[in-house]
Structure formats: C-alpha cells, structure tokens
Amino acid sequence: MLQEIYISNFILIDELRIDFHAGLNVLTGETGAGKSIIIDALGLILGERSNAEFVKNPGNKAIVEAVFDLKGNTSAINYLNELELLDEESMAAIIRREITATGKSSQRINNRSVNLTIIRDLAPMLVDIHLQHDSLKFLIPERQLKIIDGMLNEESELLPKLRVLFKEFKQNEKEITAHLDKEKNREDEISLLNYQIEEIKSVHLKPGEEEELLNVKERIHSSKKLTECAASIEQLVYQGDKFPSALDQIGKALSIADTVKNDEFYFSFQKSLSSIYYELQDITQGLLSFRDGLDFLPEELDSIEERLHKITKLKKRYGETVDEVLNYLAKAEFEREELLNNKRYIDDLLLLRVKYQDELNSNAQQLTEARKKAASFLEKRVLAELSELNLPNLKLEVVVKTSAQINENGNDQVEFLFSANLGEGLRPIAQIASGGEVSRFVLALKTALAQNYQVPTLVFDEIDMGVGGTSLAIMAQKIQQIARSHQIILVTHAPQVACYANNHHLIEKITVDSNTEIVVKSLNKEERAHEIARMLSGENYSPLTLKHAWEMLDQNTLEFND
After folding, report:
1. How far, in Å, are 370, 381, 418, 421, 527 from residue 427 at the CA level?
2. How far apart are the C-alpha atoms of 291 and 1, rounded to whole Å?
3. 265: which strand partners?
4. Nearest to 127 by CA among 172, 79, 76, 167
5. Residue 516, SS3?
6. DSSP designation for 454
7. β-strands 13-19, 92-99 pairing
8. Quick one: which of 8, 474, 550, 558 could link to 390 by a disulfide (CB 3.0–4.6 Å)?
9. Three state DSSP letters for 11-38
10. pLDDT, tens digit, for every residue of 466-497?
C-alpha cells in the first residue's frame, strides 16, 4: 500500500509530506484548495507525462516521491525482483520523479535510475487511480472490452497469442500483395535483369582490380624517371664507375676486420658487417628486378586504358566503386531468382494465408468464449455491488458481440447495457445513465475489478460527485466496506463519506508574503468534527451542526470497529 508521498516545488506546493495508512484516507478542503494537485503528483509518480508547468520555481527541480509497502504484493515483488530493483530488506518500492524547468524528467526506483516504461508497467500492480473525468472512459466500448480482457485469468494468454497470429497474418498479406505486384511486370523485370547481369559479368570484374590498374598506369607514365632512379641507386649501392659503391666499401671493411678476427670485438663486428653486405646484395637484386619490369610495351598502356574505360562505364550505371557494382550484380541475380520462382512463392504464401486464417478463427472463437465467461462473471459481481448502492430496480447486461472481421483484438465488441428503472429497456449505459448512476456504477465496477486484480490501493477523485441523499449514505458505507480489504485514498466534498475515514487530511491554500502555498494537515478527531461541520454548513456553522458532526463521527467509527 501507499505509505507516504513527498512533494517539493510542485505547482503551488513548496514542500509537503503526507502519510497514508490502511483503510480509508480522505482528502477534504474548499473547492480550489489544491486537492487535485495532490492527485496530479500521485499520477506523475505512477508514470504520467511530465510538464514544465509542474515546476513552481524554475530555479529548482520539482520532486515527487512515494513509498509503497510491498508486503503481500506478490506481482510487484516478482516484477521488481526480475529487474533487480527489489529492496529485500525494506520490502518497499520508493518511486521518485524529478522534473526540470524544461519539463524533462528523470525517475528512480529504490534509488536506481529507470526508464518511464518500467514505472508505467509497475503502477497497475500498486495503485488503481480514478480521476473525475475517467468515469466517461468506462462508457466507451473499447474501454469496456479492455475491462473484460483484464478478467480472463486462466485464458489470459489467448489475446497475446491472437495478436502475434494477426501480426503474422498481416505480414503474409503484405508479402502476397508485393509478389502479385511483381507478377504484373515479371517478364519485363526478368528481361532487364538479364541484360544488367550479362553486362556486368561480361567485364569479369575482380575486387581491387581498378586500384591495381591505376597503379600500373601511373608507373608506366613515370617509368623513365623510375628507371633513372634505379640506375643511380645501383651505382651508389652495387657498382660504381667513378667512385667505389657501398657494397665495395663494406667488402673492404670486411677484409680489414678479417685480419684481426681473433679479437672478440672484431669477430662480432665482422659478423654484423657480413650481414649488411649480403643484405645490400638482396636489396640490389630487388632493385634490378623492379627496373627490368619497367620495360613496358607501348600497347600495354592502351590495354589498361581500355579496361579502365569499361570499369568506369559500369560504375556510372551500377555503383561508385567496383565493390558496389559487384554487390549490384549479386542483388540482381537474387531478384532474378525470386522473379523466376515468383509464382511458386505466391502459391506457398496463399497456402500459408489459409493456415493463418484457420488459426485466427480458432483462436478468436476461443477468445470469444473466454470473454463471454468473463462478462457473465463480471456482470454478476457488478450487479451484486450495485444492489447495495440503492439501485433496487437496476438491470445490467454485459454483452459480447461478435463480427466476422478479425483484428488484433479479435472480433468482439463489449457493451454494458443498463436500465435503472422499471419498465425501461436495456440500453447502452452512456445513453441513459445519470451522473449519480454512473458514479455508483463505476464504484461497483472498481470494487469488482479490485477483487479480481488484487490491487492494494484504490484512489478516487470525487467518485461521489452527483450522488446525494440516501444513495450517498449507502455509497459511503460501501466505500467503508471496500476499505476493510483495500487501502482507499479519496478526494471528497461529502461529509457523509469523510466521516468514515480512518485517516483525514485537510488541504488548504494559504498566502504567505504574497506567495500562495498549499498545505496539508492531518486532523485529530476534534479537528475532524470541525471540518465535517464546515462541509455540512460552510464556514459559519452552528453549534448544532458541530454536534451533528460529532454524532456522525461517533456513529460511523463504532460501525467500522464492529
């Protein structure tokens, strides 16, 4: 359950900390006092989108942080443990969001940075939050389908399996369309590819060939200078006409060293000179071979130029380099092979489509049966809850309608049909239910779903709006009943509801040094009596009203303790 929420520099809040307990926690205060800001902060903790407007003082970050006790919450414990985010010592989840003045946010779980998706996946295991405008969402058929899908339990794998099948089926259809399009121009495409393949193959390209040809071409153009350099080096190293060569000089040095080779130093020195002597011979042989290779025939340059021209011609059509041209060739051969076998591919894909259709129909049928079973179960639960909420003549039917067209969610549509009065036929709840009836329906639905989902904390923002009189008193008792098994955090303007609270917080907006702030005070029993009296009759309540407030507190506290 939610133990604590800390808020700093958030909208109109400088800094505050609110403790929550088991049972019913109510937040009350004047209209506009800032109760919804507390709920906004909680929504942010649970993964709602951040906004620059949340930051009160742009010079600092806005911070919202909540501590959740995980004891008994198996799903949340397993999820965090799998991600190595579980604090086994405290068995708590501390979720922290920080928002900068630009609206960007960072988030942590148990002091470790996480992405927002992890928080959003964890949130439904911790809290079910219902805002004022959320009641209308429950009237949308698509939302009603999601509610039923959340009740599937043992059959919960059917929908993910169908979605995978549907994705594969759509991919199959896409491939069929692509191959049918290819078939329309198949002969022309094959003819073009044959021409391109033959054109490239006729040149017999080799990787790296162009670079090698360009090097040879450059060598031919420079052959005269290269030959002259080789001759000069040969004179210096191997055989000199006007002066002794390097090889001759080393040879003389070897002869001199040989006369004293019995000396240890000259013996080693002679070996080094000998190594240099033979290395110079090897170098000279390499130089002479290179020089002899510079004797090109005149037609060799023409042959190279012609070959380079062919390569350039292919590059203009098929790629900027020889490697790109060769890659184009491989791709063209592959495409030609596909076109030659296109009809066989189409036949195989059509057979596969039949298989997917059969599997989709079978899976969709199983899903429909599971949804009908879940709809019947939910219908009975909600009716049982509604019967306790002063709707004695209400009729409810959760209908699962099936169509022939299958999509990623199957081929079903769910609709809640509703009749609150005798003699009225069943119609979609959005068409006939009043605001108070919708509020009670949502409470009954949330109660039924909470039993199924095992969500530890339920948050309601003025769920009692539009309900009054006897119906409100019964609704308050129902909320108190739910609070026996779930932690409830409730924003309310109804004293009939607030008097049942186990933990009562007063939200106030104050002005300090021309600065508007929101403060939260946890009320003791006497303070609660005055707050409930205010809720009954306004700020100028009478002693009689205060007495009535005390009676409400005493009576409902006793009832809760029974």
Report:
1. 24, 19, 5, 12, 46
2. 90
3. none
4. 76
5. strand
6. -
7. unpaired
8. 474
9. CCEEEEEEECCCCEEEEECCCCCCHHHH
10. 787 777 888 888 888 888 888 999 988 889 88
